[in-house]
Design goal:
16% strand, 166 residues, alpha/beta, 3-stranded parallel beta sheet, 5 strands, 7 helices
Length: 166
């Protein structure tokens, strides 16, 4: 009942389609639909063999962001009761990151979403935020509460916003 997508991607020496649909139970149309939601479809369409492109051991023939989006597509194809995304958007640009997160939220629906990230901006829509320092819970609350009541969280948020502008 738990789906887990991590920053270090699990990619096999196979086709893009088989890396997304690892159990080969979905139609081509469904895999394409989910690939669009993970914002990888456009990239796949530019590849010579499309979904049949072999991506090499550990995805050596594709970028880190493409690997992450393939893994995200895999998890969106197989939504579970509990869905953990452990820094899986770290290699994406800010705009793509926001679009993919919106699609993750839509696909997960009322199921549980646990989002682990170093980016404060990823926490804005979460019901509850836990700030960890040295592996321990330093503080928790909603994004708004954390901005108002936690100096460290607020500083990290400000620092991130300034970085986005540069």
């Amino acid at each position: 009942n738990i789906g887990y997508s991590m920053q270090k991607n699990i990619i096999t020496d196979d086709t893009i389609k088989n890396n997304i649909d690892i159990v080969n139970e979905w139609t081509d149309e469904k895999v394409e639909e989910i690939s669009e939601k993970a914002k990888i479809l456009e990239d796949i369409r530019t590849m010579q063999d499309g979904f049949e492109t072999k991506i090499g051991e550990n995805g050596i023939k594709i970028s880190g962001g493409q690997k992450q989006r393939i893994q995200i597509a895999r998890n969106l194809l197989n939504v579970r009761s509990v869905n953990i995304f452990d820094d899986t958007l770290s290699a994406l640009d800010v705009d793509t990151e926001k679009k993919v997160l919106e699609e993750i939220e839509k696909q997960i629906g009322n199921n549980i979403l646990i989002l682990i990230s170093n980016k404060i901006s990823m926490m804005e829509k979460m019901d509850k935020v836990f700030l960890l320092v040295d592996g321990k819970i330093y503080d928790s609350g909603t994004h708004r509460e954390m901005l108002e009541n936690n100096t460290l969280y607020n500083e990290l948020h400000t620092y991130e916003k300034v970085g986005d502008l540069i």
